[in-house]
Amino acid sequence: MPAEAASLQVKLSRKLKLQLPSRIPKKLAGGSSGVQSPPRADGVRNGDNHNHERTKRGSKSILMDKKRIFAELPRSPSSSPSRSRSSSKRKQSLLLSSNKLLGEEGSDGPSRSMWVSGGKAGASFQAKVGKTRATSLTLKTEVKDTERWNAGKQKSPAKKHSMDSSGHLVQKQGVRAEVPSSTTARRRQQEKRDAHGDHPEVKDDQPKKRKRVIRLDPHDISNKRLDDGIVVHETIKEKKMESQDSVEISKNAQFRAIQPGPSILSFVEDNLLGRRRTIELRRAGYNTELSAPLDDIPFSMSSERERIEETIFRNKLTFFAAAKVSSSFPPPEVPEIAFAGRSNVGKSSLLNSLTRQWGVARTSDKPGLTQTINFFKLGPKLSLVDLPGYGFAYAKDEVKDAWEELVKEYVSTRIGLKRVCLLIDTKWGMKPRDHELIDLMERSQTKYQIVLTKTDLVFPIDVARRAMQIEENLKASKSIVQPVMMVSSKSGAGIRSLRTVLAKIARIAKV
Ligand SMILES: Nc1nc2c(ncn2[C@@H]2O[C@H](COP(=O)(O)OP(=O)(O)OP(=O)(O)O)[C@@H](O)[C@H]2O)c(=O)[nH]1
Ligand SMILES: [Mg+2]
């Protein structure tokens, strides 16, 4: 038996020496050192085995244990002695891992051979390869590639490969460079598979997708223009805002610089105009629980109307006509006093406050409630006319324009119109549309009087300043009736004074 074994060993050695490749992929050999060892003459490299111990035992002992199997040319199983099951399993696992490695390497791999146990194990491997048709085919083709690769290697020996795991990419790139052009199609296929995630390890080695680079068209200056435009617009806007602010500031400064005359100041104080504390009103003897307490009527009830100092305002206020167009105006039978002004300035409220009949003329905090010219009779000798407001209102522009035209027509053509009370919000002062109406009344020689409203919302000094400001502005006006009146429908301040002025009109007026 020892003699047989020795002869068998010799035979195997010869056979295997013939089959030994010039190079063996390090990956297959499981090597991990960073430097590739030069191939040995007998085809066995120091790093070809899974550990260095085997290498130490020498090439002979390795050959005893291992046999290089070429996948494309399955060798007939040698008549090596049978091995234990565990050994066989170990070889199979080695085979599987090797197979896996082959798969990972793809067509670019430097070798498709592997070291497995000789004898029965090798035979079993061959049988397995034979059984697994797909695997066999792959191996076959890959071995062909390996041969070509080796040939290529020999042609260009100057090129080196780093076989260590850290330099895997370098090796693969090198191999790629050496793969002949006939394998290009296959390589593309492999790359496709890699791209589909068949071999994640290899995929990692693939050059990563280039980031999209946004190319700038040197002739396209739209972006720049857009940016520039925005910047320019912003600066213009900012400048505009700044200039507006400065104008506003200067306007406020100008307003604060107004020195009201002594008559205006005393009027404001006598009538307790402006924002006042409740305690102050109480101390002055007014019942702050009542509506419009400064009107100096203790109870705001119908029976109390008898206490109104101006007899004409003791009459019942009755609505009798509404007009959307001038043709709907009622015939001018009695003198009329109209209340005009911007929307929400307090026209309807003033009518109620003057007559102390709350709710006859409808009011709302929503601008644009009064949309028709409403005619109210205050006794047999006077009519009070509530006009729709102009300026901002919750209505369509066409509708608002129609109101404005109607108001203009009324104030400029109405026979029997004795006075237009032009109401101005004390806080905001006169606006361009107010001036428009003034101009119209000036042209049509309609008498008008400025009435500052909502005086309870501003400081007494500002009420005086506003009155003074308007008086100064309209000094040259011919149709204006001085003085500027100041009222508050809420507190009742200045209402009695206004009644006195308006009652005089009623007394002397004839249609
Ligand atoms: N604080 C205060 N609020 C007032 C005064 N006069 C009226 N108001 C309020 O201002 C709002 C508008 O009042 P209106 O009388 O409806 O005003 P208008 O001018 O008739 O409004 P339009 O009919 O829309 O043109 C309402 O909420 C009133 O309560 C006032 O003297 N002081
Ligand atoms: Mg109104």
Automatic annotation (TrEMBL):
Entry keywords, A to Z: GTP-binding, Magnesium, Metal-binding, Nucleotide-binding
Region (Disordered): 20-218
Biased composition (Basic and acidic residues): 42-52, 141-150, 191-207
Chain ranges of the EngB-type G domain: 333-508
Gene3D superfamilies membership: P-loop containing nucleotide triphosphate hydrolases (3.40.50.300)
Necessary cofactors: Mg(2+)
UniProt-recorded Gene Ontology molecular function terms: GTP binding; metal ion binding
Sequence ranges of Low complexity compositional bias: 73-85
Lineage: superkingdom: Eukaryota
CDD domains, per the entry: YihA_EngB
Family the entry assigns: Belongs to the TRAFAC class TrmE-Era-EngA-EngB-Septin-like GTPase superfamily. EngB GTPase family.
Protein name per its UniProtKB record: Uncharacterized protein LOC116200184
Originating species: Punica granatum
